[in-house]
């Protein structure tokens, strides 16, 4: 190598050394071997001294010596550090991408609620939420459940002691009443939200849970519209092959009233523990809005008809993901919550 080439080479090495920032002790050891080892660059350059003409020996010697000091200083800067401290002590490269920030996962109740909302939004329903602290009128009386009506017993209620007219809503049906009272027709809304009941907490019951209420009011709305809407919902939510059946039922705010079952998708209708060997599981209550309810909310029952439905989000979530204990939803155990990775 001629002198000028060596000088150029040293410049390149200097830049390499300046940029060097070991991430680990192993990186530093590699550096030591490369520059300072017995077969390393510093030794190799020093051996070139023999070939340097006498008149340039001093100049070249100084250059080499400065290079050796530079290479050694870099090494001693990092030598005493432990693994993991190297990069922090060196010239940090701020252009590197940041360590990924781990995001949390959505709660399964939120995932299912958002899926339900999505299905009905695509049918033209909008969202109308009501308050969780309700008055007697919106939660019961307007819904054809006057004081002392025996059906009030179906929903064990938390009353607010300061004002006996206030309570924690027992059903999202109360939101229906508020929307109807606004009087803007036609109405096509869903009301997702939390409801409260004075139940002993167990694997199958809780003192709070979530519902989605649906309401559709217009001229000439029929039971056929109700069935078609709910058929569509079931296919979107549970898949094409799920069977649906309606059973007559009773709710004070609908006439006629029904409960809707879907064929058990766990056993395919053959019978298992989830469907209690019937092949069917109940998922919601529904019916045609009672003319008294329409009148209570200022809507002319001679002109308008409508349907309503209400479903429990926990129930659908438990079926969809085969969760056996309701308490898991409110215990905030991250081992449970992290299993639901959907970004919905
Ligand atoms: N509110 C009822 C409940 O909590 C569910 C329900 C049934 C809602 C029938 C409705 C309906 O709108 O039409 O058990």
From TrEMBL:
<dbReference type="InterPro" id="IPR010978">
    <property type="entry name" value="tRNA-bd_arm"/>
</dbReference>
<dbReference type="InterPro" id="IPR004188">
    <property type="entry name" value="Phe-tRNA_ligase_II_N"/>
</dbReference>
<keyword id="KW-0547">Nucleotide-binding</keyword>
<keyword id="KW-0436">Ligase</keyword>
<dbReference type="InterPro" id="IPR006195">
    <property type="entry name" value="aa-tRNA-synth_II"/>
</dbReference>
<dbReference type="InterPro" id="IPR002319">
    <property type="entry name" value="Phenylalanyl-tRNA_Synthase"/>
</dbReference>
<dbReference type="InterPro" id="IPR004529">
    <property type="entry name" value="Phe-tRNA-synth_IIc_asu"/>
</dbReference>
<feature type="binding site">
    <location>
        <position position="255"/>
    </location>
    <ligand>
        <name>Mg(2+)</name>
    </ligand>
</feature>
<comment type="subunit">
    <text>Tetramer of two alpha and two beta subunits.</text>
</comment>
<dbReference type="InterPro" id="IPR045864">
    <property type="entry name" value="aa-tRNA-synth_II/BPL/LPL"/>
</dbReference>
<dbReference type="Pfam" id="PF01409">
    <property type="entry name" value="tRNA-synt_2d"/>
</dbReference>
<keyword id="KW-0067">ATP-binding</keyword>
<dbReference type="GO" id="GO:0004826">
    <property type="term" value="F:phenylalanine-tRNA ligase activity"/>
</dbReference>
<comment type="similarity">
    <text>Belongs to the class-II aminoacyl-tRNA synthetase family. Phe-tRNA synthetase alpha subunit type 1 subfamily.</text>
</comment>
<feature type="domain" description="Aminoacyl-transfer RNA synthetases class-II family profile">
    <location>
        <begin position="121"/>
        <end position="319"/>
    </location>
</feature>
<keyword id="KW-0030">Aminoacyl-tRNA synthetase</keyword>
<keyword id="KW-0479">Metal-binding</keyword>
<keyword id="KW-0460">Magnesium</keyword>
<dbReference type="Pfam" id="PF02912">
    <property type="entry name" value="Phe_tRNA-synt_N"/>
</dbReference>
<protein>
    <recommendedName>
        <fullName>Phenylalanine--tRNA ligase alpha subunit</fullName>
        <ecNumber>6.1.1.20</ecNumber>
    </recommendedName>
</protein>
<dbReference type="InterPro" id="IPR022911">
    <property type="entry name" value="Phe_tRNA_ligase_alpha1_bac"/>
</dbReference>
<keyword id="KW-0963">Cytoplasm</keyword>
<keyword id="KW-0648">Protein biosynthesis</keyword>
């Amino acid at each position: 190598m001629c002198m000028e080439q060596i000088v150029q080479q040293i410049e390149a090495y200097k830049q390499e050394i300046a940029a060097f920032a070991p991430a680990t002790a192993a990186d530093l050891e590699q550096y030591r071997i490369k520059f300072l080892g017995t077969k390393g660059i510093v030794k190799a350059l020093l051996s070139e001294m023999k070939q340097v003409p006498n008149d340039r020996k001093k100049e070249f010697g100084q250059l080499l010596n400065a290079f050796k000091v530079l290479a050694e200083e870099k090494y001693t800067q990092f030598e005493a550090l432990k693994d993991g401290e190297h990069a922090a002590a060196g010239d940090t490269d701020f252009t590197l991408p940041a360590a990924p920030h781990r995001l949390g996962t959505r709660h399964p109740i939120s995932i299912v609620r958002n899926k339900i909302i999505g299905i009905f939004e695509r049918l033209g329903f909008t969202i109308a939420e009501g308050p969780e602290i309700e008055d007697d009128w919106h939660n019961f009386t307007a819904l054809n459940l006057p004081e002392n009506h025996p059906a009030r017993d179906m929903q064990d209620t938390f009353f607010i002691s300061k004002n006996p007219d206030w309570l924690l809503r027992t059903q999202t049906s109360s939101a229906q009443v508020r929307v109807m009272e606004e009087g803007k027709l036609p109405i096509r809304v869903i009301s997702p939200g939390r409801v409260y009941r004075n139940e002993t907490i167990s694997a199958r019951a809780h003192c709070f849970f979530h519902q989605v209420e649906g309401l559709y009011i217009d001229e000439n709305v029929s039971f056929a519209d109700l069935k078609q809407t709910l058929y569509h919902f079931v296919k979107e939510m549970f898949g094409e092959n799920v069977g649906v059946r309606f059973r007559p039922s009773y709710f004070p705010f609908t006439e006629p009233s029904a409960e809707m079952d879907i064929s058990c998708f766990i056993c395919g209708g053959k019978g298992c523990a989830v469907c209690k060997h019937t092949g069917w599981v109940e998922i919601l209550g529904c019916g045609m809005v009672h003319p008294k309810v329409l009148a209570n909310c200022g809507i002319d029952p001679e002109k308008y008809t409508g349907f309503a439905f209400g479903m429990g989000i926990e129930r659908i979530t438990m079926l969809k993901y085969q969760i056996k204990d309701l308490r898991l939803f409110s215990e905030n155990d991250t081992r449970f919550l992290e299993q639901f990775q959907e970004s919905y």
